[in-house]
Amino acid sequence: MVLTLHRGWVALGALSAGLGFAALVFWASAPLDISARVAPAAAPAAVISSIPTQAREVALTFDDGPSPQATPAILHLLDQYGAKATFFVLGSEAEHFPAIVEMIHRDGDELGNHAMTHRSLAGMRPSRVAYELSSTAGLIQELTGTRPLFFRPPYGNLSPVVISAAANLHETVTLWTIDTRDWTGRSAASITTTVLSDIRPGAIVLMHDGGGPRGRTVKALRSILAGLRARGYRAVTLETLVHDSTPEKGATPATQG
Ligand SMILES: [Zn+2]
User: Fold this and answer.
1) Which among 80, 91, 192 is positioned nearest to 138, based on CA atoms?
2) Rounded to whole angstroms, how far apart are CA atoms 199 and 202?
3) How far is the CA of 158 from the centre of ligand 1 (A)?
4) CA 138 from centre of chain
5) Considering the chain, what is the average pLDDT of its residues?
6) d(CA 253, ligand 1 centre) in Å
7) What is the distance between the alpha carbons of residues 241 and 119, in angstroms, rounded to a whole number?
8) What percent of the chain is predicted at pLDDT more than 70?
9) Could you tell me the distance, in angstroms and rounded to a whole number, from the CA of residue 152 to the centre of ligand 1?
């Protein structure tokens, strides 16, 4: 995967090797406008892959669930370590396992939008893209009373249509800083090493709680949470990470807590 993030410009290429290819260069004010995005005012389209922050905080994110095999075990581990995470659920899975969506919300973890069907949205007609996003957001709201603030495109595949559909729903398009590639069947030890060797303040970590057996991800999560704690890091939701982020130069510094 090649993912280069420059201030103001985001170049995306060859995301999720073998699964899809999206080449796109576009103006994005992210990550600097992310604080504005959470404010009620209309915000420009933003794509984030990390959050600028001085705090030793990171966001663990889990895609493709909810899953009865993995999600409750992940929630239990997070609780044990006083950690929070963001779950980018598929609408199709949320329809099957609404109680797990409610459980995520009740635990104080965050629900993100990962579209309805996990098809690549790039190249899809605009009305279909709008449906993929809005139906999932509507389902999350119905189950939890809260609209998702963040959207992650399946396979990381983006197009201007996808970005504008997310903006219409006031959802920030969210990629990642560290890809654990946990879906490839690699060992729990490799997943853990990938995260801990590259961890830094504001990092967004990509993992999966659905889309296949996730025993290794769950096993890795315990070591990841222990390793983060040992390094003085706190795992928080994306919403918290953004809330605690460092404002642009010239603005009042954020309170660190
Ligand atoms: Zn996915």
Assistant:
1) 91
2) 9
3) 13
4) 18
5) 84
6) 35
7) 28
8) 79
9) 8
Ligand 1 centre to CA of 16 (Å) is 10
- Cβ-based burial of 147 (10 A; exposed 0-12, middle 13-18, buried ≥19): middle
pLDDT band at 254 (very low <50, low <70, confident <90, very high): very low
Q: Domains in the chain, please, with CATH?
A: 48-243 (3.20.20.370)
Question: What residues are labeled active site?
Answer: 63, 208
Q: By three-state DSSP, how is residue 41 classified?
A: coil
Structure tokens belonging to residue 204: 């967004």
Asked whether the beta carbons of 225 and 78 are under 8 A apart, the reply is yes
Secondary-structure percent of the chain, ordered helix, strand, coil, rounded to 5: 40, 20, 45
Question: Which residues are CB-contacts of 196 (< 8 A; sequence separation ≥ 6)?
Answer: 223, 224, 227, 228, 231
Contact indicator for 233, 199 with CB cutoff of 8 Å: yes
Structure tokens at 57: 């905080």
Please write the tens of the pLDDT for every residue from 28-84.
333 333 333 443 334 444 899 999 999 999 999 999 999 999 999 999 999 999 999
